[in-house]
Write the C-alpha cells for this entry.
Amino acid sequence: MEQETESTFSDFGDNTALVCVDHQQYQKIVVPQLIDMTYKVHLGLFEEDVVLKLKTYNYDVVIVYENFKGSKVENNPILRELVLLPDARRREHFVILLSHRFATNDAMSAFVQSVDQIVNIADLANFKPILRRAVAQHRELYQAFNEMVKSVQTL
C-alpha cells in the first residue's frame, strides 16, 4: 500500500490516513474506501511502526482496530499511545475505533475510549459515508476553537 517513499508521503493539503488494522479482511474493506476518498494511506501493522509514524506524521484520520495484535480495547497499544500524545498533537488526528463491541456513532463510548468516532465492524461496508459525515461534523465543531488557537498564537 505504501507506494510513495516516506519523504514524499504527502503534500500540503493532502488527506492522510494511518490504518492500524491487522485483520486483512477488514483492511481490504477500509483501505479502498479511504483511497476512493483521496486519502493517502499508511498501514501500521506493528506497534513500534505505528508509534514512529504517529511521531513523524500528522495524520488527518487514524483508524484503530480494537483487537490490534490480539489486544482488547482496554489494553490496546495504539489507543494507549494516542492518549499519551500532547493535547494539541492529539487534536490533529481524527481517531476512529473499529469495534465488534460498540455501536457505530456511539458518542458516549467514543468519549470513554478517547476516540472521535466508533464504527462497528458490521458497518464497514458503509465506512466511507460514515467517515465523510463524522469528519465534517468534527471540523464544524472545532472550527471556532482552532481559529481561537491560531489568533492566540499570533499574539
About this structure: Helices lie at 24-36, 47-56, 77-84, 87-91, 107-112, 127-153. Confidence is low (pLDDT under 50) at residues 1-7. The longest strand covers residues 15-20. The first helix runs from residue 24 to 36.
